Amino acid sequence: MALSESSPWRALSAHAENLRDRHLRELFAADGERFARFSLRHNGLLVDFSKQRVEEKTLALLHRCAAAADLDGWKARMRAGEAINHTEGRAVRHADLRAGDRAPSEVRDVLARMRRFCTSIHDGSWRGYSGERITDVVNIGIGGSDLGPRMAVHALAAFQQPDIAVHFVANLDSADLAPLLARLNPRSTLFIVASKTFTTQETMANAHTARRWLLAAAGDEAAVARHFVAASTNLEATRAFGVAPENVFEFWDWVGGRFSLWSAIGLPIALAVGFGHFEQLLAGARDMDEHFHEATAKANLPLTLALLALWNTNFLDAHSHGVFPYSQSLALLPAHLQQLEMESNGKRANREGIAVGYATNPILWGTAGTNGQHSFFQLLHQGGALVASDFIALASPDFPLPGHHSGLLANCLAQSSALAFGQTADEARAAGIPEQLLPFRTFPGNQPSTTIVLPELTPFTLGQLIALYEHKVFCLGVLWNLNSFDQWGVELGKHLAGRLAPCLRGETGTEGLDASTRGLIAHLRDARG
Ligand code: F6P
Questions:
Q1: Distance (Å, rounded) from C-alpha 394 to C-alpha 389?
Q2: Protein residue closest via CA to atom 8 of ligand 1
Q3: Between the CA atoms of 459, 462, 468 and 470, what dihedral angle is there, to the nearest 10 degrees?
Q4: Residue among 149, 160, 171 at smallest CA distance from 263
Q5: pLDDT tens readout for residues 72-116
Q6: Which residue has the CA at smallest separation from atom 1 of ligand 1?
Q7: Is any ligand 1 atom within 6 A of the Cβ of residue 196?
Q8: What confidence tens digit (pLDDT) does each residue in 205-244 have?
Q9: CA of 96 to the centre of ligand 1 (A)
Q10: How buried is residue 219: exposed, middle or buried, by Cβ count under 10 Å (0-12/13-18/19+)?
Q11: Strands 388-394 and 228-232: what pairing?
């Protein structure tokens, strides 16, 4: 039976009819205990979802949905290593990467090698081809082999190691790699080629260009082994590229790309902030894993975020989800979550291959506050579209400067409050707004949001936060009856690009292509001379 036919889903639809027109003002007026009732705490984290348009009954029905979808069964199957990524025949075991003493021996072995490697870079015992120590590390990867580590390195800038700079290159556009190479010294630069498959077009093109750049300076193939390491599951391809086997940090097909920052793909994080801090990141994620598996459904943070997303998407029709970290250090979190959520659950075929009859993942987007307030927040306040949001705040700043943090927090709270409660015409009048401006100075409010507060931004709390969203994604996949761990949707474009590149170079004709693509190719060939 389709989930949308199940009795909890039908009950939720009926309940939504009653609740849809109720304003958050009314819900707050009716219940003075709303914050206490609709907020959860776990090990330093606070999740306040009192500004979501829910009542106790909503949550009870949503929890029934999770039970009807056999969430506990799917959690057990994931933990037991069953191939729940059934379209690729793979297990989903990224939590094993951060299991500490309980991690599989192959995981602990790679972590031990990563630790030794980091030490050798940090203490200067690793030398480049000319005997210089490494000052710059360039991670070449894309998607999951870029976004997570890039976000974490940026987030943990307060923990940055001295004397080493970590850079990220992802785009096939040479405008990404070229300006970076122009300011680096080949004698003191180390490249990490980060690719699960070691076949991704963008990564391999950038890696080969970097290799040529190095060899142009070193003049000896032997230099590659001193300046290239790899994080990959494809040991044959790394060898063919010339990376010395001892410099390949392995991971496994049971680690999905967007869940891979805990594996060898996290090497740039460890190099940037030190291996001890990388271990703290893993420990934070482990703490969230334990919470996810052990906390009751009602106290469960990831499950609660997933249920709220289900409610907003499928019952209130909010198809856009904003993520607003009031932390410049977390500015890249929305980009990481875009891949995590949209590549995982942006799907319409259910696990049986049948089109689901309901909406799945909303469009996720966002930027750091307060910057967003001066660009798109206008639309959230008065544009009319229903947008659900996550506000993320740090109780204490990671870069304290007098006079900044209280103002930042005040803006965060002010925005979620203004979005929730708006401003009526009477309130505007009472504030002295002239009658003719009232249509422009009223705010409908009733925009749902959740506020997540971290005590401070450390490797541990960052690990908790990322794993919180990872488990939310897992729960939503179960609720929507999707395989969250494949990504067939990105294949068609890759295949077409492979076909069009020779057309653009004039090596093959354009017969059989659509008229628009043919026209664009003709124009581009002409424009490029
Ligand atoms: O964009 C598709 C994808 O397969 C992502 O899932 C993955 O993170 C990315 O490409 C990079 O893949 P790889 O690590 O194999 O280079």
A1: 17
A2: 144
A3: -90
A4: 149
A5: 999 999 999 999 999 999 999 999 999 999 999 999 999 999 999
A6: 143
A7: yes
A8: 999 999 999 999 999 999 999 999 999 999 999 999 989 9
A9: 20
A10: exposed
A11: unpaired
